[in-house]
Specification:
This is Bifunctional diguanylate cyclase/phosphodiesterase. Keywords: Membrane, Transmembrane, Transmembrane helix. The protein is of the alpha/beta class. The chain has 4 domains: about 1-190; about 210-315, PAS domain (Beta-Lactamase, 2-Layer Sandwich), CATH 3.30.450; about 325-480, Reverse transcriptase/Diguanylate cyclase domain (Alpha-Beta Plaits, 2-Layer Sandwich); about 500-769, EAL domain (TIM Barrel). About 55% of the residues lie in helices and about 15% in strands. The strands form 4 sheets. An 8-stranded mixed barrel has the order 12-13-15-16-17-18-19-20, surrounded by 5 helices. The longest helix has about 55 residues, at about 155-210. The chain is rod-shaped and about 180 Å long. The N and C termini lie far apart (about 125 Å).
Length: about 775
């Protein structure tokens, strides 16, 4: 197919020269007639007729095809052209044969010149048809050589050699010209095919891709039009020429400044990102373009890539990386980055660390899906409270934070913390359930004294922990003393393991007596720790530390073993041991208690395990199962510090408690507040109805003892009776011997007979209370 097109191009070039060539042949024929004259006779007339006929045939062919646009030519047309050229060559060869020899010298020069000229001109004119050129050339050469041979002059031998060399050069040059022309045509056809392919691909690209090609003139008007480009610009294809692209971008995007600057400077640009529109309707484009080299006035050519989906995906990834998936609030990373930026700029502010109180109860009792709804509701309330400049985030679990960077907030940080506590204490409705959560807040200031964001977070957490230790539902502002307390806490935790390994812990025992007869009924085992460097560390400090660092199980097992072994030396007395909720919830706890009782040879009824009300808030069902297992084992269970925590009557009915220990805060208030006396009296009566004994803790005065007796509390424990003491001193106390030396810092005047001096009361009318 390509050969046919090449033939058509060659024939077309030859056809354009045909009138000139045929005219030259006729003029040359006329000159031959002038040179030969009447001497040519019939042969000259025949020759001129043949030449005229060939010229006419050529002119007729040109005339017939002058308006015809043919893309292809057959081999037949090629051969026809070759035959025509061969006949012309034969005609001029005959002219040399017929009239060169008889002609006079002057006429010989004319004939030789005409034949040679026609040979050279025709060979190059026919170069597009290489075989026609060769046939034409060598037929003329053959006639000329024959004429020179007939002349028989020696000089013509040299002329013949020159003629052959000249004809060879002409032929080679014509062939080279034909090859070059063919190569150029092939290259042009290849370029056209490539352009067609590129055009097809571009058209397909513009019709199916999200991108669009564009081209403008120097003024910015669009000169390349396509349906895709019109769709992107929101106009019709016919009106694209009215659009001035730079101004169009400037009017619709606030991010067009880099593009306009590059356009004004004539510099190429690549992947300049523009946002058009806002919200859900926003779209993002990436523009690349460069000036058109050599364009009149300086046009531009480029592409618009619609990257909306990719940008939305990127925004979603950024959202996931910087926001909490559950609540949509800023996450820890985003919050810390904002705090870091504020501190780098020296901006003042506050960080509020917020932790929900007893959130685990909701998860355990209502399920994690309900817990998630509660967290979303908490997030919504915090966002509703936030002011301009506040960033609310979720740090993880039930921990939230508020970073306050506003220059003139409506509420002071402490007022905001109080409002947060109030709002989060309001009930949260999840379906038919009405749930209650509280919150504690720790506040830390962003100021030059804080070295980095990590220290800021630590300060807020220390304040939060102090708020929780202080009873929850309150806020605390960080102070340097909290840092010292934190370091002390860390030191205690580090020393705990060493203290357990070196036997630094010792049990002290505090007697419990009958409130009427003052007879000793049992003792409570209390762990004491005397550290060689830290000195005496209180249980209120080392027991929470043991719970935090996971040593409470080891410490509790030590207390249980020592207490059961000591009970063997205290015949007839029960021994009470405090049990941490973490220790009780250990799966093998009941079995471990049974093993300790067997090894110590102690009857289960003499062991009293004291638990606090916080146990019921962790995992009530699991706690109930373990307490029933202990009761089945024969162990007595006491509820310690009753009245200071949850104090649910439903739990009292469900849990198998043998004893209620009334907290010392109520006992201390008995002589001062009538409502305290009414509360304690109610507790005692309720316990009696439920079949439980009651123990009044912290009795320190005879007045408090008298009131406790009046309300019929079963047992008494406190400094009025005795302070905690080591086992040897306890034996002396029980035997009635003086207790010498310091006993839990009690002064030496408190002697065992102090109890005997308190008059026992034998007649009580509790039913009248």
């Amino acid at each position: 197919m390509e050969s046919a097109r090449i033939r058509a191009e060659h024939l077309g070039q030859l056809m354009r020269l045909t009138p000139l060539l045929m005219g030259a042949n006729l003029i040359a024929g006329g000159l031959v007639w002038l040179a030969v004259g009447r001497a040519g006779g019939v042969w000259l007339a025949a020759w001129l007729s043949l030449l005229s006929l060939l010229a006419a045939f050529g002119i007729a062919g040109w005339w017939a095809r002058r308006k015809r646009v043919g893309g292809r030519a057959s081999s037949k047309a090629y051969r026809r052209g070759t035959w025509h050229a061969a006949l012309l060559g034969l005609c001029w060869g005959l002219a040399a044969v017929l009239w060169f020899v008889p002609a006079a010298p002057a006429e010989r020069v004319l004939i030789a010149t005409l034949v040679t000229g026609m040979l050279g001109a025709g060979a190059f004119a026919l170069a597009m048809l290489p075989w026609a050129s060769l046939a034409y050339t060598w037929l003329i050469v053959a006639g000329a050589l024959l004429a020179l041979w007939r002349a028989g002059e020696p000089i013509f031998l040299a002329v013949a050699v020159l003629l052959l060399s000249y004809a060879g050069v002409v032929s080679l040059a014509a062939m080279a010209l034909a090859r070059q022309s063919t190569a150029l045509l092939r290259a042009r056809f290849s370029h056209v095919r490539q352009q067609q392919v590129v055009s097809l691909l571009l058209r397909d690209f513009e019709e199916n891709a999200s991108d669009a090609l564009w081209e403008t003139d120097a003024a910015g008007h669009i000169v390349h039009r396509s349906a895709r480009l019109a769709s992107l610009l929101g106009t019709t294809e016919d009106r694209l020429g009215e659009v001035k692209l730079p101004q169009w971008f400037a009017a619709r995007s606030q991010q067009a400044a880099p593009l306009l600057a590059a356009w004004a400077l004539g510099r190429p640009f690549r992947d300049i990102k523009l946002q058009l529109g806002r919200g859900d309707q926003a779209r993002w484009w990436a523009l690349s373009a460069k000036p058109i080299a050599g364009a009149a006035g300086g046009g531009w050519r480029g592409v618009i890539a619609d990257i909306t989906e990719a940008q939305r995906f990127e925004n979603q990834l950024r959202m996931q990386a910087e926001h909490d998936a559950l609540t949509g609030l800023a996450n820890r990373r985003s919050l810390m980055n904002a705090a870091h930026a504020a501190m780098a700029l020296g901006r003042p502010g506050w960080l509020l660390s917020i932790d929900l109180d007893h959130f685990k109860v909701i998860n355990d009792s209502s399920g994690h899906s309900t817990g998630d709804e509660v967290l979303r509701a908490v997030a919504g309330r915090l966002l509703a409270l936030a002011e301009e400049g506040d960033l609310v985030g979720r740090l993880g679990g039930d921990e939230f934070a508020m970073l306050r960077l506003g220059e003139s907030p409506k509420r002071a940080p402490q007022a905001m913390a109080a409002l947060i506590i109030d709002k989060l204490s309001e009930p949260i409705e999840v379906g038919p359930k009405r749930l209650h959560v509280g919150a504690s807040v720790g506040l830390a200031r962003l100021d030059p004294s804080v070295a980095n964001v990590e220290d800021l977070m630590v300060n807020a957490d220390l304040a939060l922990y102090d708020a929780k230790r202080s009873g929850r539902g309150r806020s605390v502002v960080y102070a340097s003393s909290l840092g010292a307390a934190s370091r002390r806490m860390h030191t205690v935790e580090q020393a705990l393991r060493e203290g357990l390994g070196q036997g630094q812990f010792e049990l002290h025992f505090q007697p419990k007596v009958d409130s009427h007869s003052l007879r000793a009924l049992g003792v409570e085992a209390l762990m004491r720790w005397e550290h060689p460097v830290l000195g005496s560390v209180s249980p209120g400090e080392f027991i929470p530390a043991a719970e935090r660092c996971g040593l409470i199980h080891e410490l509790g097992a030590l207390a249980l073993q020592q207490a059961c072994l000591a009970a063997r030396d205290l015949p007839g007395l029960s021994v009470a041991v405090n049990v941490s909720p973490l220790q009780l919830m250990e799966p093998g706890f009941v079995d471990s208690v049974e093993r300790v009782l067997v090894r110590a040879g102690l009857g289960p009824s003499l062991l009293h395990l004291e638990v606090t009300e916080s146990l019921m808030l962790e995992d009530a069902q699991a706690a109930l199962r373990r307490l029933h297992a202990l009761r089945d084992l024969g162990v007595q269970v006491a509820l310690d510090d009753f009245g200071t925590g949850f104090s649910s009557l439903a739990y009292l009915r469900a849990f198998p408690f043998h004893t209620l220990k009334i907290d010392r805060s109520f006992v201390r208030s008995l002589s001062e507040h009538n409502d305290a006396r009414a509360i304690v009296s109610t507790i005692v009566q309720m316990a009696g109805v439920l079949g439980m004994r009651t123990v009044a803790e912290g009795v320190e005065t005879e007045r408090e003892l008298a009131i406790v007796r009046e309300i019929c509390c079963d047992e008494v424990q406190g400094y009025l009776v005795a302070r905690p003491m080591p086992l040897p001193k306890l034996k002396d106390w029980l035997a009635g011997r003086p207790v010498t030396g310091p006993v839990d810092d009690m002064d030496s005047r408190i002697l065992p007979w102090r109890v005997t001096q308190l008059a026992p009361r034998t007649t009580m009318f509790c039913a009248d209370l």
